[in-house]
Write a structure and sequence with these properties.
Layout (H helix, E strand, L loop, with lengths): L2 H28 L12 E2 L8 E2 L3 E2 L7 E2 L10 H16 L3 E10 L6 H17 L7 E8 L3 E3 L2 E3 L2 E7 L3 E5 L4 E5 L5 E2 L11 H15 L4 E9 L12 H14 L8 E7 L5 E4 L3 E4 L3 E7 L2 H21 L2 E3 L13 H16 L4 E6 L7 H21 L7 E5 L12 H7 L2 E6 L24 H15 L21 H19 L2
Parallel strand pairs: 1-7, 5-6, 13-14, 19-20
Antiparallel strand pairs: 2-3, 4-8, 5-9, 7-8, 10-11, 12-16, 13-17, 15-16, 18-21, 19-21
């Protein structure tokens, strides 16, 4: 036999061996397919994946899975499985703007089908309810699973954990294909202008994208509408909570370099706003902020110019706004309708005029320690800076100054005179430069001399009684009035303050 014949025989032999092997495999896998129940038996597997996670924000690790016996709704939990559920419970409590979708699966050959899937999910949900997780944060669904898997003769992967935002917020501009999704929802606490949660990493990233979008398209503007419920208590210094809430978001964007004219602030009351209750965070409101992208029209720019001119005229006329509701130690701002009107104009003006700056000048009544006077005055000015910043004025536009006790309104000889000297004066600079202090009372260089007569002795007794009187009401003097005391002589100041102190004392005894 020649070499060619030998090669052909070898090739045929190899093909025959391959054919026999293939036939044996096909016979083994198909001979029993018809008429047997063994083919529907779930294949045993081992689950080694993390089955509870929320992207890169939360992950329980490789905990043992939840198991169920066939046709059973009772979960089989290992010790580390219970720990994983406990971690998930804590995660939801710490993130009230998240919800957990519990999907319960069932096999088509299981009895009662969908009911089994629902009851399996409800069995896991009960752990969350027992730990006081709010109802709105755990939602149950059911689905059929075609290919079941077994672990130790029990069903595996019959519960799925899926995290979602409760009510995500979107910002869209179809013209330039802008589409940003915010999971935070910009929820605010009830009757408050404080965000429920600090902005997340995702929100900060989206704001960076939004700011870049607006900076690159000078003909587009973002309209921010802040909503509030009519039943909310407005403790802010602005006409309504919606304006303050919108200003909060406005400040985040302007800090990223977005021009002021590309952001418009609006507010609206909505009695249909939905309230949620979190055991950890209290009541809060969803859908507090809405966004809309529009074109900048000439009429809009004209309205800004008119508003700037109107407010500037008011500020020039007022010159200084005085906040005098300060105790010796405590600091507070009591909102009045006049204050809210003034602050609304003030905030709107600094938003319209990017060169504007607000100077907060702190004052103190005179004590024996001048350094302490300056320190207290500075703390009062810083308090007002924080107050204005909370209402939407960017901190970079706020300047803090202290003049201590050098510009008194009163004589410091009566409780009333001391109270009006403890104050913060707000002055507005239209171009950012430091305004002149000529609108403040003249600098007092020497302390007033005490008069030694019967009237003085009587006055001192009245002052002592007024100073020791508990719960003395705060001064009701209008904080923005132009003070007449600065034009009075020392004697006339004393007489006026005595009358004011006597009136306060008389009113407090009624």
């Amino acid at each position: 036999m020649n070499k060619k014949s030998i090669f052909l025989v070898s090739l045929i032999a190899m093909a025959l061996v391959g054919w026999i092997a293939t036939g044996s495999y096909l016979f083994a896998t198909t001979c029993c397919e018809e008429g047997t129940a063994e083919t529907t038996t779930p294949a045993p597997v081992v689950n080694n994946k993390s089955w509870i996670q929320d992207g890169n924000k939360f992950d329980v690790g490789n905990a043992s899975p939840i198991l169920f016996a066939i046709n059973s709704t009772t979960p089989i939990l290992a010790e580390d499985t219970e720990l994983a559920i406990a971690k998930t419970i804590d995660y939801l409590k710490d993130n009230p703007l998240k919800k957990l979708l519990l999907i319960g699966y069932y096999g088509e050959e299981e009895t009662s089908n969908a009911n089994i899937g629902t009851n399996r999910a409800m069995a896991i949900r009960s752990f969350f309810m027992q730990s006081n997780v709010p109802d709105y944060q755990v939602i149950v669904e059911t689905k059929e699973k075609k290919h079941l898997q077994l672990q130790n003769e029990n069903l595996l992967d019959m519960i799925e954990f899926k995290f979602e935002a409760i009510a995500p917020t979107t910002i869209k501009d179809v013209i330039y294909e802008l589409n940003l999704l915010f999971d935070d929802n910009f929820a605010f606490k009830k009757s408050s202008f404080n965000l429920l949660m600090p902005p997340s990493t995702q929100t900060k990233s989206n704001f960076d994208k939004l700011a870049a979008y607006l900076r690159n398209r000078s003909k587009r503007k973002l309209v921010i509408t802040g909503y509030y419920h009519p039943a909310e208590i407005n403790s802010s210094g602005l006409p309504n909570l919606g304006i303050v809430r919108a200003n909060k978001i406005h400040m985040l964007l302007t800090s990223l370099g977005v021009p002021e004219q590309q952001i418009e602030i609006k507010s609206a009351a909505d009695s249909n706003l939905k309230w949620m209750l979190s055991p950890s965070y209290g009541e809060f409101m969803l859908n507090s902020i809405a966004f809309e992208v529009e074109a900048i029209e000439p009429a809009y720019l004209a309205s800004l110019a008119q508003e700037k001119e109107r407010i500037e005229a008011l500020l020039l006329d007022k010159k200084v706004y005085r906040l005098k509701d300060f105790g010796e130690q405590d600091m507070a701002v009591i909102p009045t309708e006049e204050l809210r009107t003034y602050l609304a104009d003030l905030v709107a003006y600094v938003n319209i005029n990017p060169q504007a700056a607000i100077y907060c000048v702190g004052h103190s009544n005179r004590t024996k320690n001048r350094e302490e006077d300056e320190k207290k005055a500075f703390e009062r000015a810083k308090f007002i800076k924080k107050f204005l910043s909370n209402h939407g004025v960017h901190p970079d536009k706020l300047v803090v100054k202290s003049v201590g006790s050098t510009h008194p309104l009163g004589t410091d000889k009566t409780p009333y005179g001391q109270s009006i000297n403890r104050r913060v004066d707000i002055l507005v600079s239209f171009d950012g430069s430091q305004p002149r202090l000529s609108v403040l009372p003249k600098i007092s260089t020497t302390p007033d001399t005490l008069k030694t007569n019967k009237n003085t002795k009587l006055k001192e007794e009245k002052d002592s009684a007024a100073a020791t009187k508990p719960n003395k009401p705060k001064s009701t003097i209008n904080p923005s009035e132009q003070v007449e005391e600065e034009n009075l002589k020392p004697k006339e100041k004393e007489e006026k303050e005595e009358k004011e102190a006597a009136t306060v004392k008389k009113d407090s005894t009624k």
